[in-house]
Design goal:
Strand content: under 5%
Order of helices and strands: HHHEEH
Number of strands: 2
Mean pLDDT: 95
Radius of gyration: 17 Å
Number of domains: 1
CATH class: Mainly Alpha
Oligomer: single chain
Largest sheet: 2 strands, antiparallel
CATH superfamily: dinb family like domain
Shape: globular
CATH topology: Four Helix Bundle (Hemerythrin (Met), subunit A)
Length: 167
Amino acid sequence: MSGDIGQAYLAEALRVFRQYKELGEKAMAQLDPAGVYQTLDDESNSVAVIVKHLAGNMRSRWTDFLTTDGEKPDRNRDGEFELTASTTPADVRRWWDEGWRSVFAAVEPLQPEDLLRTVTIRGEPHSVLQAIDRQIAHYAYHVGQIVQLARHLAGERWTTLSIPKRR
């Protein structure tokens, strides 16, 4: 891949990752501490559960990104959807921060020539470019869930995170 195009892609991927990180943080900041545990119904996930899942995914996908399968054998994906009674808002914030640190630690050092290298995720080969795109889509999906849930729970206290409706 051309160095200029590759460098532009990597810069854009990092910009988008940072954008979704910030969007999630701004949404979560509008919740009261108990709000991170609330669900819409018994089959829904809370913000805390979504964050725990994202953090588990991020750790698994980005740790030793270029050299090991993105689905680490020690990952307990099902456990990511369970909280204990001792889970605190500080735990949720720590999971969020650690997950994003994993993303940036893996993506920031990449060079354009890395984009066509092959990595595996769940035993399936992907180019680095495909793997990055896969994760951007996954994180956008879940950050969207966080925003929607936070918006619902904040109610009239909600401050829009995008262009407000004309009233």
